[in-house]
Amino acid sequence: MAGSTAQITATLNSPVLVQWAPQVPEAKLTGTISGTGFRTLGTEGAIILAGNNTFTGSINIQSGGGLDFMLGAAGTLQGDYNLNLAVDAADYVLWRKSPSTVGGGDPAGYNLWRSNFGGTGIGLGTSDKIKVTTAGALTLGATTVFTVAGGGTVAPSGTYSLLEYTGSYNGSLAGAVINNATGLELSSGIVDNTTSKRFEISVTSTAQDRTWAGVVNGNWSFNDAEKTNWSPNGQPNGPGATAHFNATGAGTVTIADSDKTLGNMIINSATPYTFASTGTFRLFTNTYSGGSAVTVLNGNHIISAPMTLTKATTITSTNVADSLTISGDVVNTGGITKAGAGDLTISGPVSGGGIFNLTAGTATLSGASAYTGATTVGTGTTLTAANSGTTSATGTSTVTVNGTGTFVINSGARTTSTTTINSGAVENNSGTTTGAHTINSGGTVTILSGGLGSGTHTTTTGAILNINSGGSAATQTISGGTVNVDGTVTGTSTLTASGVLNVSSSGTAAATTITAGTVNVAGTLTGTATIGATGVLAGAGTTANITDQSGGHLKPGGANAVGTLTVAAANTVNFNVGSSLDIDVDSSSADLLNLMNVGTGTVLTIGSTAAGASVNVNVNVLSALTTGTYTYPIIDYSSLNAAIGGGGFADLITPAPQGGYTFTLVNNTGNSSIDLQIAVAGAGAGSISSGSAAVPEPTSLVMLLLGLAAAAMCGRRR
Question: Which of 69, 161, 238, 251 is deepest in the core (most CB within 10 A)?
């Protein structure tokens, strides 16, 4: 609250934060503040005095101590209503025309004009400021540090008042050290305006641009003794500042005395650089407008200092052989765009809401991250998750793989991201993902030996999911795409559209719902397979329960290949009304559905007692059969301990004669099998594919019976 007073007496011998809200015009402290604990900027432990802070006690800044000031917008000339850089009669005329709106109203606008009449030029900028109202109450140490910084939204410009004193002060500005964190050049050092009794600093509009020389040592600091580490002298620090690191002075550069901020960091050296920090000092990327950039033009370099990416930051490793490793923690606020043909490795944890956009080259995330911004893997790029433990390498972000991009999940790595693959690829090498995956047309996911985890995974038309031996996936929807299983599917697989699930001889899948599409099983289905209206279950593997619904097709053996589909012990097979059993036949054998159930109860159900013949048997003769009669078992129920349920054998529809072939279905009770007999008259008729004999509609059947009755009556009349 404006004009409030606080009694504070403190000796600051270690970093302490004292902060007032900027919207408070003035806060008055009546005690004494002294010590050396004013060293660092921001929340790292500076004493930050925001607004106008008035001391009626004393301030004793000991040698090495300092004060931090945030500089705001450039100043204006108060009372200059027509903005001609002079307060004159014309401004009074302008105010007089609209006294209620110009200059803050009446009489405020008049008083402001009157008090500044005759003034010219630009006024003081908006900044943090201290007022000491007691003469002699201010004491400066031999090396008082004044930190001036820009906020990163409005570039400071012009002259600012930092500290106003009364009468005189103790000590001298001669030893004052400026930590210029504005990113802009200063016109001069701290100036004692003895007329106005204030310390002033002036900021130009020229951005800092420095080249590392490393003449003194490896310290990146504001220390005057180390200023020749840079050319021209003095550190770069602040939003929009540029730092070049060439071959000269290559080695370890240490952020030594405060956080550092750059808009552009350019590294061009075959000799490696390592950018470290002491304590908790951080490297920030920030600008007053636009994005920031970290660019490696040549070489392999490391940033071990913790980083905060305040604005959108483009990190470029220009050539294929170039690389940048960031091993400290990264607060990704503004977003990361990786460019260039080289590599970026972030081995520290990444947090924040910024995006990660890989547009070129390769990138590796191996830290335990918690960032939430979207992750995009661009065409021709490769992103590798290489972390360990239980935390996600990609945080909780959504991951999108585009074009020919590849997302690789290494051994032991983990991601919890929701992943969309748009014509790109994902390779899981013993890692674990628990987020949902959507694989779109052209996309490929390969699980080499890890798992897709607990998320729901969708494979759309034109997409491929490969689950290699040792790999696993949970619940999935195959919506037109293809899933190849050499490993394990632990959750339910639901097929829609023209989806295909191929379970190899070494593969295992759980419950399967084939709404539409095809399941080819050479391995094992451990859960119930439900075949929908346009679904197909085929193969020569082993299944659990099978329910063949109306319109569905059960096909032992593969496509155009004879084989045996085995139903494992203690499972059931149900052919619903309108379902189909498809059988391939060659000259020596036919497809066989083999039931191994050794339990009790009804394990084979065909049709319904009320429907009559209602389950289709379709026969595909693969090659011409010679004259004769052929008998093939097509359902082996020798292990059943109960009768066939539903309508039983009678509910199977015998295929209609076709192409010189006549088909007969036989319930071979002596052999406990249902057999298909094919009678071939004359020479081989070639390959054919039979349909099902039509089931007469009730009205047609009635008409047929009536016709037969009429014929009989006519015969009796004769």
Answer: 238
